[in-house]
């Protein structure tokens, strides 16, 4: 399938406080690190991939535009801001480096839902909106900047409801039945859960293994 005119933004500048001593981006789920899983899918789907970090020295090997936060607030909103600021396309799909099961069908569906008047196309799971698996238009930048200045860091707080298009959990389940695309790893226990979610199928030759993610 063709790559889409959209930037894939991966946020990887967090403090990993609930994952002490290790950087979540480099933890393995299945055969690859979480970051490598996301980057590999993004490189297939998007014409541009941006990684937003606070310590670029950790990410020298990755084939993506690596940028740092512009705002010093140290929160995911600051990462979203830098990602949209540097994006070469109007629309960006934004996710976090600790979301190992990004889903191409969900991404392409969200992209197809763009319409005039909307600045955010966002999945709604059974738990609520999923701001770190959503599509944002560059025109969100001024409201993000205002909230960063006001120190209102919760991402959803900058949304203007009439500019947001929500995608229902029922629709999402038709694309990703277990809504894995939004599973995120905060703790070592979450990492073990993610590893358990990777189903490995022995094909009969006993050697070749395929992951279903
Ligand atoms: N670029 C950038 N990304 C961030 C920043 N803070 C968090 N993120 C990313 O946003 C995503 C969600 O972050 P959180 O889970 O809220 O924070 P975290 O640092 O990963 O983990 P905790 O410290 O345990 O809360 C993760 O991918 C982080 O790497 C930041 O200041 N800058």
From TrEMBL:
Which GO molecular function terms does the record list? GTP binding; metal ion binding; molybdenum cofactor guanylyltransferase activity
What are the protein's UniProt keywords? Cytoplasm, GTP-binding, Magnesium, Metal-binding, Molybdenum cofactor biosynthesis, Nucleotide-binding, Nucleotidyltransferase, Transferase
Query: Which segments constitute the MobA-like NTP transferase domain?
Result: 8-150
**Gene3D superfamilies recorded:** Spore Coat Polysaccharide Biosynthesis Protein SpsA, Chain A
Nucleotidyltransferase keyword on record = yes
Its localization reads:
Cytoplasm
> Could you name the Gene Ontology cellular component terms for this entry?
cytoplasm
Which cofactors?
Mg(2+)
* Binding-site positions, Mg(2+): 98
**Residue ranges of coiled coil:** none
Instruction: Say yes or no: keyword Iron-sulfur present.
Output: no
Q: Which GO terms describe its biological process?
A: bis(molybdopterin guanine dinucleotide)molybdenum biosynthetic process
**EC number of the protein:** 2.7.7.77
HAMAP family, A to Z:
MobA
Q: Specify the protein name.
A: Probable molybdenum cofactor guanylyltransferase
């Amino acid at each position: 399938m063709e790559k889409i005119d959209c930037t894939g933004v991966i946020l990887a500048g967090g403090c990993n406080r609930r994952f002490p001593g290790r950087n979540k981006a480099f933890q393995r789920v299945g055969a690859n690190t979480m970051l490598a899983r996301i980057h590999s899918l993004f490189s297939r789907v998007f014409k541009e991939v941006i990684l937003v970090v606070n310590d670029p020295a950790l990410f020298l090997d990755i084939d993506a535009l690596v940028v740092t936060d512009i705002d010093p607030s140290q929160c995911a909103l600051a990462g979203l801001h830098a990602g949209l600021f540097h994006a070469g396309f109007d629309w960006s799909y934004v996710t976090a480096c600790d979301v190992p099961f990004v889903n191409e069908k969900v991404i392409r569906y969200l992209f197809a839902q763009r319409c005039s008047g909307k600045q955010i196309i966002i999945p709604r799971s059974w738990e609520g909106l999923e701001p770190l698996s959503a599509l944002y238009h560059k025109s969100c930048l001024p409201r993000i900047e205002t909230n960063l200045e006001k120190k209102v860091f919760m991402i959803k707080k900058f949304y203007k409801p009439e500019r947001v298009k929500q995608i229902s959990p029922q629709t999402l389940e038709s694309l990703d039945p277990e809504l894995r695309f939004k599973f995120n790893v905060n703790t070592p226990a979450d990492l073990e859960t993610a590893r358990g979610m990777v189903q490995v199928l022995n094909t009969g030759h006993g050697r070749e293994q395929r992951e279903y993610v």
